[in-house]
Write the structure tokens for this entry.
Amino acid sequence: MVERSDRAPLLDWEEAPSAEKPGGAAPATANTKDRLSSPSNSRASPGCSAPGFGWSSGPGGPTPGRSVSNADGSIDPPATSITPADKDEALHPDTEEHLSDSESREVTLEDRMVKWEEKDQIVSVFVVTFNTRSGNMLEWCLPKDMDLEGVEFKAIASGSHRVTTDFIYFRKGNYFGLACFANMPVESTVERGARMKSVGILSPSYTLLYRYMSFLEHQVRLQLQSPGHYSPLEAFYEDKRALLPPSGDGVVTACPANAWGAAINHSMHPEMKITHPAGCMSQFIRFFGEQIMVLWKLALLRRRILIFSPPPVGVVCYRVYCCCCLANISIPGIGVAVPEFRPFFYVNVADISALENELSYVACTTEKIFEEKKDLYDVYVDNQNVKTYRDGLKPLLRLSTADREKYRKLTEQRQMLLYSQEENGDCVSSEEDLFILFFLEQNNRIFQTLSEVAGSSDPTLTQESVRAMGLDPHGDRLFLLHLLEIYGYDNLMVSEQLCCS
């Protein structure tokens, strides 16, 4: 029996306003210098719309207002605002062409990053179909010489025949992809009564893929109704394609090579519109409940997290993103040596070799066989059940007193925000901003305290300093020891008072 995907209708496909348009805000350049000043691993600065890779709650990257940290470590619900960019910060697109060589070399990194993120970055467009004899097949693509091996298994997830529509985020080599899937009943014995296709695109960054969601949905319906008509996809590719270097090594030349680290922190800041009816973060909180505190610790420890769920895949891809947001840190210099917490989104058996080489990631799958591949992950999430086969991590699955207290505070702040929205018509603040800032503040609080103790005359963690981090001196002792080891706080001593409960 075919079930319909549970997600809400998607927003219309629209282009983000150009930074050069008169009278319009230029969100791409807002606070550019501040955001670029922090290292790429920090992924955030205090004024970002939603630190780290992923999405924010609205177009153009609304910037949360400054949150107020209370004495108990909780934060007041933030107000959000859109800050217009200083028009002098943006380099006019035609300006650089007329600069002399010396002047060109003086073009700032901020200017080049602004120009890079305003460019369309589609490197490939493709159609995948399900053939009753051959299985998933790449039906058509542009450019013709693009290496798309395996994309047919990413664009149509295992088990997708059970749903009528879905969308899938995935990784393909150096690129991120988005594919929209549709399943249409047909009166054809050759096709066994069903025609299934996906239309997808590849880009170096997933934060801009949302722009084309509605377009891809429309195109996959056209492909089902009139197979073989590719002219709209050809026109789309010609209009949106990015330029690849002559070497063909898969790096987009629109982003300066020496600015790639800054690109991760700047141009990939969240600007994704949430299409789930309740919003990505609020759905994530309701789905996992208190378990998000367990996921938070594992994410901060840069563990390999694999989420299993049957189709539809789209909402599970959002859970991958939410897990990444749990590990945001905006203190410069923190985590330079730790593995980057990388989103893989949807993975299948074809990705096993890639996952074997990853030190830290979060991904989702519809293939139950992954549960048996225990060497590929540290933590396996089966719907709401979080489990691990690593003996050293099993104690971290138990909630501490501090975990429950933090979750209670998060719930209270959400309720206050919802009440404000209902009673006062507050349409500016969002649950997404509240959620992201809550964990950002918590993470910053931990590492700020660790840095202060490490720099003191007596670098010893006491019960008081652990409580100052918002942690439980007894229940969070093992988590703290893992944290010190992974983030390189070798000079810190742990007081004997921090014994296991």
In short: The chain has 15 helices and 14 strands. The CA atoms of residues 169 and 321 lie 10 Å apart.
